[in-house]
């Protein structure tokens, strides 16, 4: 009420709260204030907006900024849902959404370098993320007649929420020392 008396008619606050089973929930809480014309009482109209997805995308981008990834995505270990996004310097743009991260990445269909079959599963990836917070993995794939090596860089975002992100890029030249 004091800020209204100073001329501020709108205020908002961005905050989060932790839910042990589901992680951080981010909110924007807004208050619009006005005077009741009949009584001159100050009336506050409040509303909130869930910013959790936006904040998770921002966190993922902060972790991956400065790297040259051909693919950046954020995924939910618990549901398998994922969001692919790009960053154009100021705005994050969601380019695709899906329901099965395991299938989208074709995990299990490539030859992973230094991984056991147990590691190449969503559960194996999640276990490794919980132990290390981030890790890299390399796999070989075939693009037409050319063998390619891809690097996946996994980052843990929010363990309670089951959120992680990854960047992927072609590292064939760095691994083989020749351009295919």
Distance between the termini: 67 Å
Helix proportion range = 10-25%
Radius of gyration from CA coordinates? 22 Å
Beta-strand share of residues = over 45%
Continuous helix count: 5
The overall pLDDT average reads: 80
Q: What is the N-to-C succession of helices and strands?
A: HEEEHEEEHEHEEEH
Structural category: alpha+beta
Shape: elongated
Give a count of the beta strands, DSSP E runs of length 2 or more.
10
Stretches where pLDDT falls below 50 for ≥5 residues? none
Largest sheet: 7 strands, antiparallel
How would you portray this structure in words?
The chain has 180 residues and is α+β, with helices and mostly antiparallel strands. The protein is 21% helix and 47% strand. It has helices spanning 2-5, 52-64, 101-104, 122-132, 172-176; strands at 10-19, 23-35, 42-50, 71-76, 82-87, 92-98, 111-113, 134-143, 146-158, 163-170. The strands form two sheets. It has a seven-stranded antiparallel sheet. The longest helix is centred in the N-terminal third of the chain and has 13 residues, at 52-64.
Secondary-structure blueprint of this entry?
Layout (H helix, E strand, L loop, with lengths): L1 H4 L4 E10 L3 E13 L6 E9 L1 H13 L6 E6 L5 E6 L4 E7 L2 H4 L6 E3 L8 H11 L1 E10 L2 E13 L4 E8 L1 H5 L4
């Amino acid at each position: 009420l004091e800020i209204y008396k100073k001329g501020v008619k709108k205020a908002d606050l961005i905050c989060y709260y932790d839910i042990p089973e589901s992680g951080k929930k981010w909110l924007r809480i807004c208050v619009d204030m006005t005077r009741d014309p009949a009584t001159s009482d100050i009336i506050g109209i409040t509303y909130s907006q869930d910013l959790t997805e936006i904040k998770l995308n921002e966190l993922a981008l902060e972790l991956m900024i400065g790297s040259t990834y051909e693919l950046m995505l954020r995924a939910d270990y618990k549901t398998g849902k994922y969001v692919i996004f790009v960053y154009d310097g100021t705005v994050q743009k969601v380019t695709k959404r899906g329901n099965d991260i395991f299938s989208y990445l074709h995990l299990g269909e490539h030859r992973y370098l230094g991984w056991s079959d147990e590691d190449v599963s969503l559960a194996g990836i999640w276990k490794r993320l919980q132990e290390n917070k981030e890790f890299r993995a390399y796999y070989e794939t075939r693009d037409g007649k050319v063998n390619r090596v891809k690097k996946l860089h996994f980052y843990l975002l929010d363990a309670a929420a089951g959120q992680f992100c990854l960047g992927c890029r072609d590292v064939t030249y760095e691994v083989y020392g020749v351009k295919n």
